[in-house]
Amino acid sequence: MPAISSSMPASAFAEVPMYADMTPATLQRLMNMLSENVLPTTPYFFHTATFAFLVILWAFTLGISGAMAFLFGKRYTGMNFDQRRTSDIYILNCVLTTTAAALQFASMGAFSLDFHTFQFKLLRVAATLIASNYVFEMIYRPRMRYPMIAHHLLTLFLIMLSLSVLYEVKDPSILLSGNCLMFLATLEQP
User: Fold this and answer.
1) Which domain holds residue 3?
2) Is 23 in the same domain as 93?
3) Residues 113 and 164 both lie in one domain
């Protein structure tokens, strides 16, 4: 497979099976999207946004805790610390994974091989939501079972690997595979 470059004509990819059925306009958009200079391995691309988002998640979780105490009173405040934290994180999980799933469904048009920039951006935001959610859960919850910690760490590894490989290999099938794998993370919540 030839390396994708935004300066190459779309016709250069006509004989590659993955690109054979794509229109020249779709190929050109795909080449422009995959030729970005900002990569997931760039230190300021993902990490700064994730840190800021973790602070936002912490503030949001404080709001959830306050709302639960207001709505349920003694039933909530009477729970022990671990139970309150776990219930807060479950509500946060449902909010974030529902949002991530909606973003993934909005980018489903990529499966027709008609790629658009917004699909890449939506999936990056969904990946950031899931990754931040898992990191925050591991920090916020006082106790977690080892299988859940392993699940979170493996999911984080797969997200980082998929994003890095997508921009290094420049193969759009990785975008589609990553979207399918992320559905496992987004649709596991109650």
Assistant:
1) 1-35
2) no
3) yes
Query: Which pLDDT score, from 0 to 100, does residue 128 have?
Result: 85
Q: Are residues 25 and 55 in the same domain?
A: no
Count of domains forming the chain: 2
Separation of first and last alpha carbons in the chain: 42
**What's the pLDDT at 186?**
77
Residue 138 and residue 120 share a domain? yes
Residue at 179: amino acid letter: N
- Angle (CA) 189-83-97 rounded to 5° is 20
Question: SS3 for 39?
Answer: coil
DSSP string, 91-130: HHHHHHHHHHHHHHHHTGGGGGT---HHHHHHHHHHHHHH
Residue identified by tokens 């776990």 is 86
DSSP 79: S
User: For residue 146, what are its two tokens?
Assistant: 């080892």
- Regarding whether 56 and 132 lie in a shared domain, the answer is yes
pLDDT tens-place string over residues 129-182: 888 888 899 999 888 899 989 988 988 888 888 877 777 777 778 878 888 787
What is the token pair recorded at 127? 């990946």
Burial class (CB in 10 A: 0-12, 13-18, 19+), 70: exposed
**Whether the predicted pLDDT of 40 surpasses 60:** no
| Three-class secondary structure of residue 106 per DSSP | helix
Are 114 and 180 within one domain?
yes
